[in-house]
Amino acid sequence: MDYSKFINPHASQRNPSLIREMTQMLATAEPGTIFMAGGFPNPEMFPFESVDVRVDANIQVHLEGSALSAALQYQPTLGYPPLRDELKRLIYRDHKPPKFDDMDGLVTIGSQHGLSGIFGVILQNGDPVVVPQPVYSSALAIMDPYRPVYLAVPEDSLGMQPALLKSILDKWSSSNSHEQLPKILYVNPTGTNPTGAVIPTERKREIYQIAEEYDLLIIEDDPYYYLHFEEDDPVSFLSMDTSCRVIRLESFSKVFSSGIRVGFAFGPKPIIRQLELLTQHTVLHCSSLSQVIVHRILEQWGPAGFTEHTKKVKAFYRNRRNLMVSAAEKHLTGLAVWDVPRGGMFLWMKVLGLKDTYQMLMQRGIKQGIMLLPGKEFMPDRSITYPYVRASYSVASHDDIDKGEVISARTALSSYIYSLV
Ligand SMILES: Cc1ncc(COP(=O)(O)O)c(C=O)c1O
């Protein structure tokens, strides 16, 4: 594939930073190489003696001496090499990308960093972009300043609908020139934020086929991959990527810690190289300490231990999803409708009899002591009103979930009555 057409003129002008390139070279340099090229501060002046992290009785991280110095020092932009290798192994284990050797990975500061970087090297003002509707609001927030034309593909309970994707693209391409065709299809396939859908494999194959036909890069933003409630793990777009057009964004936020800020971008080498150059010039790299801690824990767990942990995470969120759905059934039946989330952390509801939930949530809801997100936030076109609400079941206690639904019911009812007068 020729990737040059995907890279915007701004990114294609970006030169490598020699210091960063040499820091990368150092990672594989002969032992004993004297490194006087970079501006590495001397770790003797860092005021840390040791760092200890305890996961449980068996898994602990103790850093001191040279291990601590490495964890407190600059690292290559692509990531702390042992972690990067480990993450590549995990990608291979879970997805077996057909074009694995043509792809590369960069340790990101969470999935959001990967997203903003990838959009930043591809998008140009006014570009058309394919997104699901509804769509992760912070993806819109990155794209909005480019004033893109959102080719919004409605979701049903199984996520983005291939037939609609095809007809939207057919229509767009019949009335626009070749240069105005979209380059990106953004999708968040597992436990979709906000709907909780998990796109089934067959549907993914159809979407992939359409992306082939229209030569689209697929941005597979999948931070809830380990938070699905299905029998089998989803088959990713990456695992069916025979033509090397998928950029997969993974995140440790939901399974490890959101504050540790570690994720992984994996995709075609030329695109990852662009992300590397942008990262070289902006944040340099993901926190070394975070990367070392994540690596040490993964190393001690081994792949089987990591899988064990993700099983616990799934069971935990499945239980919370069940609590949320029972509370909604108890208090909101007749007032709202929803699909049972198949993954993720959110219940997406349509409030019946209301045109707009914005006023209801931002004014009456907050006054009554409940904060829920209005559906409008997740809509590519925010110039009109929507009757949707996103409720998160990730951290609210059982009692709060129940109480929250009672208040939601009261608020929805009062809003409905309010809208009639
Ligand atoms: C769909 C989606 N993508 C990306 C992110 C950002 O995650 P991270 O913490 O890995 O940056 C989130 C966080 O909620 C999300 O829901």
Write out key terms for the chains shown.
alpha+beta, kynurenine-oxoglutarate transaminase activity, 42% helix, 4-stranded antiparallel sheet, globular, Aminotransferase_I/II_large, Class-I_PLP-dep_aminotransf, pyridoxal phosphate, 12 helices, 421 residues, binds pyridoxal-5'-phosphate, 5-stranded mixed sheet
Task: Outline the secondary-structure elements.
Layout: H1 9-12, H2 18-27, E1 51-54, E2 60-63, H3 65-72, H4 81-95, E3 103-108, H5 110-122, E4 128-133, H6 137-143, E5 149-156, E6 159-160, H7 162-175, E7 184-187, H8 201-213, E8 217-221, E9 246-251, E10 263-268, H9 269-281, H10 288-332, E11 336-338, E12 346-351, H11 358-367, E13 373-374, E14 388-392, H12 398-420
Parallel strand pairs: 4-5, 7-8, 8-9
Antiparallel strand pairs: 1-2, 3-10, 5-6, 9-10, 11-12, 12-14, 13-14
Written description of the protein model:
This protein has 421 residues and is of the alpha+beta class. Helix content is 42%, strand content 16%. The chain has 12 helices and 14 strands. The strands form 4 sheets. The protein has a 5-stranded mixed sheet with strand order 3-10-9-8-7, with helices on both faces. Strands 11-12-14-13 form a 4-stranded antiparallel sheet. It is globular. The protein starts with 8 loop residues before the first helix and ends with a helix. The relative contact order is 0.13. The mean pLDDT is 94. Pyridoxal-5'-phosphate binds next to helix 5. This is Aminotransferase class I/classII large domain-containing protein. Belongs to the class-I pyridoxal-phosphate-dependent aminotransferase family. One of its GO terms (molecular function) is kynurenine-oxoglutarate transaminase activity. Residues 65-378 form the Aminotransferase class I/classII large domain. It holds the Pfam family Aminotran_1_2.
